[in-house]
Amino acid sequence: KRMPADMHWAREDWNRAGRIEDFLPDFAGWEWSWLSVPSLIRATEAVWEFPMVDRDPLPNWTRGRVTLLGDAAHPMYPIGSNGASQGILDARTLAYHLAMEGDAAAGLRAYEAARRPATSALVEASRNQGPDLVLDLADQRAPEGFAAVGGREAVLPLAELEEISRAYKRKAGFDPALLNARESLSYTGATAKAPDPRPAARRDFHRSR
Ligand SMILES: Cc1cc2nc3c(=O)[nH]c(=O)nc-3n(C[C@H](O)[C@H](O)[C@H](O)COP(=O)(O)OP(=O)(O)OC[C@H]3O[C@@H](n4cnc5c(N)ncnc54)[C@H](O)[C@@H]3O)c2cc1C
After folding, report:
1. d(CA 72, CA 111)
2. What are residue 180's DSSP bridge partners?
3. 87 C-alpha to center of ligand 1: Å?
4. Which of 2-11, 69-78, 197-206 is the least confident region?
5. What is the pTM of this model?
6. What is the pLDDT of residue 9?
7. Relative to the CA of 84, which ligand 1 atom is closest?
8. I need a surface site. Which of 125, 139, 149, 173 has the fewest CB within 10 A?
9. Residues 95 and 104 sit within 8 Å (Cβ to Cβ)
10. Is the dihedral of CA 108, 185, 183, 75 positive or negative?
């Protein structure tokens, strides 16, 4: 449910009990012989608020041997089954680049170069509903309800549903075709660069020349 624009609340808190009376009226007509949504809601023991909270993409994540990962790097709206999944992709990419570069600072830079643009695009895409866009489309096209989601009288033809889902998967890095086509992030040890044995201070001296 969209809350009124002037409603005040602790936005960054997912542990706040919600109030049934705030949203029960919206579901008053959801009664069928086989399901009563209002009864279902009334019988629910606990209701929690689900605020949509994120942050603008950051211009950088890494300083020397310190970087960000997961929600600390790219908090995004919790739609599209994405927040934790992206944290896992970060971890896999980070481990790969640390192993490949052999040098921590270079590994972190390579990790950021691979993950920051991808996750920044996803933060933006999630603000535009991501795959949940289908809910708004169905509502716009059939405000009085519809008989069939698919089929000839379809509110959302299957091809359109699939394309919305595919486009989001591509952006999120879950698209099977893209995953199968790209190189594995498993570290084999074969192509790792040797770590620079020189102390950091000497290395920086040579780099600055
Ligand atoms: C309502 C909701 C629904 C969601 N649904 C999904 C979903 O379906 N699929 C999905 O993939 N993702 C989902 N997410 C997002 C997912 O939960 C997060 O993206 C994920 O937990 C981020 O993992 P993280 O390790 O980066 O951060 P966190 O899980 O926030 O972990 C950070 C940890 O650091 C600890 N910490 C903080 N400060 C300190 C400190 N100073 N010292 C020591 N420890 C500290 C915290 O206590 C916490 O345990 C959802 C999120 C919400 C809120």
Report:
1. 15
2. none
3. 9
4. 197-206
5. 0.78
6. 57
7. 11
8. 139
9. no
10. negative
